[in-house]
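Readers outside the structure-tokenisation community will struggle with the description of the input data as it stands. Showing the layout once, in full, would remove most of the difficulty. For illustration, here is how one protein appears when written out as sequence plus structure tokens:
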Amino acid sequence: MTNDLKERVQAIKNWCSLNKIFYLKADILLPAAVIEEAKAIYDNNFFVPHRDSHGKGWESCTLHGEEWNVTTYNQDNKDYKWTKLTEYAPAMTNWLKNVFPNNGNYSRCRFMLLQPGGYIRPHTDTHQWREGDPLKDDVM
């Protein structure tokens, strides 16, 4: 990362922190086929409960990770791979591999689902976080 880019990223982080913004809206357009792929994944019962302790009706399935039905984080992620879910989501897989700006070193890539009436409690995606701990503000 160049010094100019590092300075710009730090400026964004500072602005977000000062303004209590913990997310940024990204104008990312996915291929239209991804919606149909997500529906097919849903219809084929690939979604599994995700973090029951963090909410209700929250489900996911993994496109890149340990396996399609393993949705939690593995710190060393050395066993991460593209899962059989890629057969059901070729447009999303292609978009992630060839269109979305990346270095090819993905951690987890998942489809997430929130069932009607479901909710997700405030949380931070770190292993050390416990209910009542402050949320992290680093949107980067």
